[in-house]
Amino acid sequence: MTALAARGIRAGEIREVGAAAFAWLSAHRGDFALSEDALTADGQVDATWKPLGELAQTCASVRSHTPPSDPLHVCARELLRFAWQQTGRGELFLRLQQSEPFATYPLEIYSVFASAGLRHPGYEAAAATTARTRGWRLTEQDPTRRLGVLKAERRSGIRRPERDAEVLRRTWLGGLPEPWTFERSSGYALTHVVFHLTDWGRTPAGVPADLAAYLAHWLPPWLDTCLDAGMWDLGCELLIVAASLPCPPDHTTLQHAWSRIARAQHDSGALPQQAPVSRGEAGADSGGDAAVAPEPDFLQCYHSTLMAAFAAAQTVKYLAGEGHEDGAEDRAAYVGGTQNRYRGQGVPG
User: Fold this and answer.
1) Where is the DUF6895 domain (predicted)?
2) What is the pTM of this model?
3) Helical H segments across 245-323, by residue range
4) What are the pLDDT digits (tens) for 62-100?
5) Phi and psi at residue 88, in whole multiples of 5°?
6) 3-class DSSP state of 268
7) CA dihedral sign of residues 324, 327, 332, 334
8) Residue 276: is the preceding peptide bond cis (ω within 30°)?
9) Of the candidates 342, 344, 323, which has an alpha carbon nearest to the alpha carbon of residue 334?
10) pLDDT tens profile 164-177
């Protein structure tokens, strides 16, 4: 159990959670490397490209949210460079385009690198050609995924007339559903909608006013419910959303959530996706015992550890006053199918 377990948590301690997570990610960098079957037609995309893309997205986001002198920025930059090298500096995306021209996951992952200034002109040209076809435009996707694909196209220089606003209103969050219908799947869907709308936390103003007000009201109880259930992975995604809103939740809500995440984190920096509910850790004090259990294997904790690193950087940025123009008073108070082989909601997911 980390040293944060027995006391309240402040910005510096949130940063410690992020630093520990990055230490684990750096130590396990080799586990993110693409395997030999990454380019085969029956390759396991969720075990090859998806982890690498999620590593890249987290590192690109943290790099953009931290100053160059920050050790977290340096670590994120190095891991992003590693991820780009794994793709052959973009060359493997071109090979994927040739073998799976209508798969969307290569463009979704490539767009992460493009947003960080790492580009492959040959792949972009090939992807743009495919994107002009009716087959590409008519690919059936759920609205949250569709919103992500549209954002990925724009990051990669592809422009077409489909309107984000119309797609947004077909998502779970965009429809402003009854709050009691929130569950795990809708939770992940709503976090990704906010990620797409805010460009992964860079532009809080991208969240429409009605959605921002809805989230300001209901995100705290949803976050508390997830943490009560020991859902550390989704809890961290909701913390990213919280720090990305024009007016994030109050001090007490965030402090309580971060204290529980800190208790759940292993000394190595790894954060399990889920507390071991069979032992009764899903109650209010679940975080205290979760870190005593054996550290889960890579596939069971890499994503939640990535989300802990991302959430910490995003929250610290908010606390430092670098984030939002809106909500300044609250901040001051606180400081005081083929395409379906890749089944996530986007990267990360």
Assistant:
1) 20-313
2) 0.88
3) 251-264, 286-290, 298-319
4) 999 999 999 999 999 999 999 999 999 999 999 999 999
5) 65, 35
6) coil
7) negative
8) no
9) 323
10) 899 999 999 999 99
